[in-house]
């Protein structure tokens, strides 16, 4: 929306507003219940209120537009505004007392540890981390090939008994120089020296840190969203163990390189169902992202955030949910709506019982993030019985091969790892982890870099841009 100096505000302002085709499209967009975005609506209305004297609400604007019956092209805008008002009224009536209150949301935020004071690895080394962060054990470890040389595409196993996999190369982790990061404490693995160190891996445990009502409800929302994804979305790694789904931006199948939002659903669902599933995953991955931003040390956060800023990466979006900010979590059947919270980065994965042999993932950003929200053990599995039965912390664990570190999987684990280094998940033997991952694959970054500034804008939309572009 633009206004040039010297225009007669009282006579021309409304016409400037409606003659701007971009703004007309915004009103039409907001009138669609399926893609209604509170942030865009409130940002747009704030600009309208500022620019047009006497307008304080959507009702005011609707009345003003309706009164200008003799203006051409107004009937469509009037009808879009009427639909927008109806959409908002319906949502308000439906939500009513059922939505989470501000106080409930604040409680969830505290339970999730989202109100942390920032800290750095230097603070960990000097034992000076905030009280709200659980103790973090520091491990010094150098990458090495000497006792940890394992070929690519090798399956790793923690089981000492006979393996059932035929025709696959399997190595036992006990035959190599590997240590466990147990799930009863958080760890950071550093190489180098206290004066000149490099963060190699971090595993934070018992996240959310609170054991309150809402954090428990959050974890069950997160694991239910994994189950729903498994049921209705495409498994993008059908030859691996378990299921991996993707949402967000991708480059299409390997044979056809097309940048855009991943085609994720396999089942025939209604638009409303797809939107609802997408919103759940956007909420799940975005709260995971918010937790990472709050509880990881500055050293890891700044590496990731700098990368996102350099690449100007847009936020998480899907084929059914347009870019924007804000997300909703459903906790104990109550929506917790955070309209101004930033969404996660654009590439996210959902895993259930997923495992892979040793491999590397090409990426420009050295860190990727994973969040395990649930772990279930099938005790009827043969490897969980008898004298050589695997203990509960074994199976389905992340291994950084050259670092020689096995991260015992457990619900409430946030893992910052280096996907460009050789890694694998140990054979599950009846262990099933539910989780999410935020990654920054090189394939996606390359595709995004190739887009023109104009094309990038399609994926990178802010409410201010929508209302201010003429
Ligand atoms: Fe990987």
In short, what is this structure?
The protein is of the alpha+beta class. Helices cover 35% and strands 20% of the residues. The strands form four sheets. A nine-stranded mixed beta sheet has the order 1-5-6-15-12-17-11-7-8, with helices on both faces. The chain has a four-stranded mixed beta sheet with strand order 4-14-13-16, with no helix packed on it. Strands 2-3 form a two-stranded parallel sheet.
Number of strands: 17
Largest sheet properties:
9 strands, mixed
Q: Could you give the order of strands across the largest sheet?
A: 1-5-6-15-12-17-11-7-8
Element order: H for helix, E for strand? HHHHHHHEEEEEEHEEHHEEEEEEEEEHHH
Radius of gyration, in angstroms, nearest whole number? 25 Å
Q: Quaternary status of these chains?
A: single chain
Corresponding CATH architecture of the largest domain? 4-Layer Sandwich
How many domains? 2
Contiguous runs where pLDDT drops below 50 for at least 5 residues = 1-12, 461-470
What does this protein structure show overall?
The chain is of the alpha+beta class. It folds into 2 domains: 89 residues, no CATH class; 272 residues, Double-stranded beta-helix (4-Layer Sandwich), CATH 3.60.130. Helices cover 35% and strands 20% of the residues. The protein has a 9-stranded mixed β-sheet with strand order 1-5-6-15-12-17-11-7-8, with helices on both faces. Strands 4-14-13-16 form a 4-stranded mixed β-sheet, with no helix packed on it. Helix 2 packs parallel to helix 5, helix 4 packs antiparallel against helix 5 and helix 8 packs across helix 9. The N and C termini lie close together (5 Å). The structure holds fe (ii) ion.
